[in-house]
Amino acid sequence: MTEGVWREATTGFQFSPEKIVVTEELQKEKLRHCGLDSDVLHGHVDASFFISIGIHVGVKHGISAEGNVNMLTGLTQYRPVRLGEVLIAHGMITDVQDVPRGQAIETDVWFEDVNGKRVVSAPRKSLRPDPEKADQRGAGERPDPVIKDVKQLETVGTYSLTPEAVKAYSSDGNSIHYDMVSANKAGFRAPIIGGGMGVHYLVHTLWQQRLAEAFDMSIYFRRPIFWDDTFTVAVSPWKSVGLIREGKVLTEARLTLSK
User: I want to staple 175 with a disulfide (CB 3.0 to 4.6 A). Which of 40, 182, 199, 237 is the partner?
Assistant: First the structure.
């Protein structure tokens, strides 16, 4: 692709298979910016990384991520992935729909080991806002809430973000995550963290509780998380987990653990 020339997202467009590796150095650096201890993973990969890797695979195929906002993501880990393990990324755009705010784009991305066995799946639905429709609301059908009463949750951690740390984590790709002007143009008061960055806190909780052997998450991004926010991680053991700010759900996940 010629730099700066983007492909229109179309249903059925397939990505070429691509080798990917998550290194110990990358994981340690990224999780440090999140305020998370990478040692709890015991030499394995935090599956949250595969969300952003999948987005970047699309970018390499000419599908722009600039200004896009995650709405929902699936994250299934069939087995833990070792740091440094070679995986093959596969993906395709499964649906593109016009919505009041622009386009809703559904993408299926999955990762296989060198033997062709699927180890992680990370399908997602994102909103590509149309600048000419900035005054419109609506991005398609809104799924029912997973967490219906935050007062019934058990708090397992509290985290405070800083602009410096969020910018260090999100220094490339979609500029609404690290640039004030871009965030303001998109209608946000400040840069917002990427969906994958927020999911680190959910997956980290599973590793802390030694529940991350195999799992399936249906993740919903309900409200933006700004680069200077403080939020709690709370669970309904072990059916759901969410990021909560001032009694409101920011990100939530329906959780199924495989025994």
Answer: 182
